[in-house]
Amino acid sequence: MKVLEVQNLGVNFGGLRAVDNFSLSISENELVGIIGPNGAGKTTVFNLLTGVYKASDGEIKVNGKSIKNKSCHQIINMGLARTFQNIRLFNDMSVIDNIKVGLYHRYRYNLMTGILKTSKYFKQEEAINEAAVNLMDVFGLMPYRDYLAANLPYGKQRELEIARALATKPSLLLLDEPAAGMNPQETIDLMNTIRKVKDEFATAILLIEHDMHLVKGICQRVVVLNYGQVLTAGPTDQVLTDSAVIKAYLGE
């Protein structure tokens, strides 16, 4: 089954064609990378997929359903979640509470149930807490459970952001430059984390990345963007040795 189908996607910002004729399909449990020079349109594609920007033309389907006219939170409920190039956590909230934010859309109780603290309220709060603890355990965040997010080491902040996104139970997870700002050891740890996410959560992953060591180490396929258009796409080893790709990155 295709978790993502994109056909002839494009967006205009005034007279600028930021993305043009972009197409991509991703199957269940697949790990695909998008690479390209700065300004190639990579994050713009992510913003189109998640409803931050509205496409000028083309079609996007998540799990077979069009996201046209859907809001960001509706797209999350359809099975798509993301992280950001610049980490966006609730810095003044604890680690466990950050993860719980991603869980609440999966559980429902009304205002009166919360005010009156009925049995349904306690049952659902217990389920939310248990799910958050399970995610912390997977990511090695249990020792930091009550830390404020702002006080975590950088690598753990990145892992927390991924854990919060996974709390929404996505079928496709978008990672926007997850290795940005990481040292070599943190990058190795991140690669192991991404592999674990793919295998243990059976989640397809689409990532943007400039670290070619990471891309080569984990991506099954790669799409190369340049000036908003697909330059080439295919198996990772084949793409990374393509002369046109090397030229786009390094010049003549």
Percent of sequence in beta strands? 25-35%
Radius of gyration: 19 Å
* Shape type: globular
CATH homologous superfamily caption of the largest domain:
P-loop containing nucleotide triphosphate hydrolases
User: How widely separated are the two ends?
Assistant: 41 Å
Number of strands: 10
Q: Could you say how many structural domains there are in total?
A: 2
- Helical fraction equals 25-40%
Q: SS-based structural class?
A: alpha/beta
CATH uppermost class of the largest domain: Alpha Beta
List low-confidence stretches.
none
Lateral arrangement of strands in the main beta sheet: 6-7-8-3-9-10
Q: Looking at CATH, which topology of the largest domain would you report?
A: Rossmann fold
Overall average pLDDT: 90
- Main sheet overview: 6 strands, mixed
Number of helical regions = 10
Q: H/E series, N to C?
A: EEEHEEHEHHHHEHEHEEHH
User: Can you name the CATH architecture of the largest domain?
Assistant: 3-Layer(aba) Sandwich
What does this structure look like?
The protein is of the alpha/beta class and 252 residues long. It has two domains: 1-79 and 169-252, P-loop containing nucleotide triphosphate hydrolases (Rossmann fold, 3-Layer(aba) Sandwich), CATH 3.40.50; 91-168, no CATH class. It has helices at residues 42-49, 72-78, 95-103, 111-116, 119-138, 154-166, 184-200, 212-218, 236-240, 243-250, and strands spanning 2-13, 16-27, 31-35, 57-62, 65-66, 80-82, 172-176, 204-208, 221-226, 229-235. The chain has a six-stranded mixed sheet with strand order 6-7-8-3-9-10, sandwiched between helices. The protein has a four-stranded antiparallel sheet with strand order 2-1-4-5, covered by helices on one side. Helix 3 packs across helix 5 (119-138) and helix 3 (95-103) packs parallel to helix 6. The protein is globular, with a radius of gyration of 19 Å.
